[in-house]
Amino acid sequence: MLRYHSRAVARGITLAASLALATATVTAPVRAQSIIFDDEIEGVLTDYARPILKAAGLERGNVAMRIINDRTFNAFVLDGRNVFMNTGLIMQAETPNQVIGVIAHEVGHIDGAHLAALRAEIERVQTGMMLTRLIGIAAAILSRNGAALVAGDEPWLRTFLARRRQQESAADIAGLKYLTATGQSGRGMLETFERLGVENRAYGVNPYLLSHPTERTRIAQLKEQVVASPHYNAKDSPELQMRHDLIRAKLRGFTIPAQDVLRMYPPENKTLPARYARAIAANCSGNCTKAIGEIDALIKEKPNSPYFWELKGHVYAKDGKPKEAVAPLRQALKLMGNRSHLLRMELAKVIVDSNDVAQYDEAIRILEVSMDTRPDDIGGHRTLARAYAAKGRVAEADVSMAQAHLVGGDRKQAVIFAQRAQRALPNGSRAWLKADDIIKTTPKDSY
User: Fold this and answer.
1) For all residues of the chain together, what is the average pLDDT?
2) How far is residue 74's CA from residue 409's CA, in Å, rounded to a whole number?
C-alpha cells in the first residue's frame, strides 16, 4: 500500500516556469514534500521508463522514478538519478503514452546534463545583491506574477530564461528521439504540452518570463516531427492501459476524499479499476466486511495480483485484525518473489502486532535482513525492537531503538540506547559493533 515519507525535496514547479526549480535547487530553502512509496505504482513507472532510459544510454545509471504527493500536473528532475512525478500528473494523464512522453522529456534533461549547466550559471551570478534578486525572481515566477520582478533584473532574467528555453527545446527533441527509437508515439508528449498551454493562458503568464518555450512555439516545433514519425499512430497495449488505469484508481482511492472517488467511480461502473478505487476508498473502521468482500471479488478475478492480496492484508490491519492480515500479506509477498522490502516490513509488523510471540522469530528474520538493506526505515527499527524485547533480547532491542533514534535525528537518545546496549552485549558481537558505530560516529557535542 501507499507509504508516505516526508522529506526535503525542492518543489518542482509547473513545466512552464522551471527557473524557480533551478533556483530553489541551488539557492533557496527547500520545502518538505511527502514522497510516496508503492511497489505497484513504482513498478508501472519503472516499466514506462526502462525502454526510454535504454534508448538514452542510461539503463545502467540507476535512474529511479519517485512519486511526489502533490495533485498538480507536474514532473521534474533535480539530479541525474531521479525523475520526480507528481500524483496529479499520474492521475490526470489518460494514457500511458502521456506519462511516457513526460518521462522522455525529463530523461532528455538528464542526458543533456541540463541541471548541472543551470547550477553553474546560477553560481556565476549569485553574488552580493544578485543572490537576493535571484531568490526574489524565483518567488515571483512561482507565484506566476511577473509584475513582481524589478525592471532592472529583467534583461539578465530574459537572457537566463532564453538559455533555459533552449534546454527545454533540446529535451523535447531528445525525448521524441527516444520515443521513436522505442517504437512509441510522440502524441502523448504533444497532448501534454497542449494542456500546459491552456493552463498558461488561463494564468496569463508572460511568455518572456517562461523558462519553457511558449505553447505555440513548442507545439509548432514538435508537431511536424511527431506527425512525421512512423509510430505516430502507435497505441498503448490494452494490458499497459489497464495497469495505468489501476494505478490511477489506486492513487485516487488513497489520496482524495471517498465521496469524490464515488463520483468518479460510481457503483454502476463495474470495471476493475473502478472496483479497485471503491474498495480502497471504503475507509472502513471497526467493520470491514463489505470492503473485504469487494477485495475478494478482485482476487477471484485476478488471483495472481499481489496488490489485491496486499490490499486485503492492509484492510485487515487497519481494522485492528493483524492475525487475519498475515495470510494475505504472505501470499502477496510470495507472488512478488519475496522481493519487496515494503511488503516484508508490513508482514513483519502485523506478525508483531498480532502478539503471537511464537511467530516473532519469523518477524525478526525478516526484519534483520530488510533493515540491513534499508537502514533508513525508522518504523522497521522500532518494530524489530519490539520483537527483540518480547523475546527477551533486551540489549538487541536497545540497539534497534538506538538506530531508530539516529534515523529520526535524536543523536542524544541514540547514544544513550547504544551505550546501554553495549554494556550488556558480548564484546565484538554483531549487535555490539552496531552500537559501537553509533557511539563513535556521533559528535560529542550532540549528546
Assistant:
1) 82
2) 31
* Inter-residue contact 415 to 402 (CB < 8 Å): yes
Going by DSSP bridges, is the β-strand pair 82-86/64-68 parallel, antiparallel, or unpaired?
parallel
The 10 Å CB-count burial string (b at 16+, else e) for 35-55 is: ebbbbbbbbbbeebbebbbeb
The whole-angstrom separation of Cα 22 and Cα 230 is 35
Angle formed by the axes of helices 322-335 and 306-318, to 10°?
A: 160
**CA separation for the pair 381, 401 (Å, rounded):** 6
User: From start to end of 59-105, where are the E strands?
Assistant: 64-68, 75-77, 82-86
Secondary structure letter of residue 27 according to DSSP: T
Residue 35: phi and psi, rounded to 5, are -95, 135
Per-residue pLDDT reduced to its tens digit, 64-97? 999 999 998 888 888 788 999 999 999 999 999 9
Contacts of 414 (CB under 8 A, 6+ apart): 402, 403, 405, 406, 438, 442, 447
Q: Which uninterrupted H or E stretch holds 351?
A: helix 341-353
Alpha-carbon span 311 to 57, nearest angstrom = 37
- Rounded-to-integer distance, Cα 329 and Cα 310, Å: 5
Length of the chain: 447
Q: Which of 438, 405, 442 shows the shortest CA–CA distance to 422?
A: 438
Nearest Cα to 121, choosing from 161, 171, 76? 161
**Mean pLDDT of the region 142-170:** 60
> CA neighbours within 13 Å on the CB side: how many for 67?
26
Cβ proximity of 399 and 434 under 8 Å:
yes
Strands of the sheet with 64-68, listed across from one edge: 3-9, 31-37, 64-68, 82-86, 75-77
- The C-alpha atoms of residue 208 and residue 368 are separated, in whole angstroms, by 56
Span 122-143, mean pLDDT?
53
Question: Closest by alpha carbon to 193, among 369, 30, 315, 16?
Answer: 16
pLDDT tens column, 278-328: 999 886 655 677 789 999 999 999 999 999 999 999 999 988 999 999 999
Which domains does the chain possess? 3-236 (3.40.390), 348-447 (1.25.40)
CB-CB contact of 401 with 420 (8 Å) = no
Nearest CA to 240 among 35, 52, 423, 99? 99
pLDDT, tens digit, for every residue of 89-119?
999 999 999 999 999 999 998 887 766 666 6
